[in-house]
Amino acid sequence: MTKELFKGSVVLNPVPAVVITSRNKDGVNNAFTVAWTGTICTNPPMLSISIRPERLSYEYIKETMEFTVNLPNTFQVRETDYCGVISGRDVDKIKHLGLTAKPGEHVNSPYLEEFPINIECKVKQIIPLGTHDLFLAEVVGSHINKNIIDEKGKIHFEWANLINYCHGEYFPMSKKPIGQFGFSVAKNPLLIEKYKHIKSYTEYRDEKNNKKPKKKVKSKVKKKK
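Structure (tokenized):
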């Protein structure tokens, strides 16, 4: 397999597309979209977001050291995109979009009621990197829509219709899993049966290499005498 070398380019894709809400000390709310975010620690539960210093939300979050991560679904992709291209200095985006800013339980920043998952965070550290600063934050509480929680209390993220961001475009998250953590070494018969159709890369490769070329079908059209 041939490859081409790209120098100094971050091609880590896909990434989650989320809307960050914040509130400044004067009680003014703002929302903006972030794609560079991720989980960074289990205990304490922590995540990170990267923000350009010129962003209005950068100012709000650095002032209060709090923010909320709102995970949108496929029905909120227009709102998600809008929050990423319009500045809060020009428009009250939450009001313009008809979204509901609910008071946080553990932080002063609001959460968007219409979004299926909301994660309240308190900033622990800010690391200047270059074009962006990295905000390391502890998760202090989450709001989860009840319709994506089963009777046993398990959260089904596949029911939430979440979206991903990849090189400038938004994509829906698949509802059909192609595996689960540990399935490659599973001993549980039910788990083995569930994913037995998932082949390894070497199996795919060997099948492709050993595939016999199709025979040419002879034309059955009779020649005119």
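The domain at 15-172 is CATH 2.30.110.10 (Pnp Oxidase; Chain A). The chain is about 15% helix and 30% strand.
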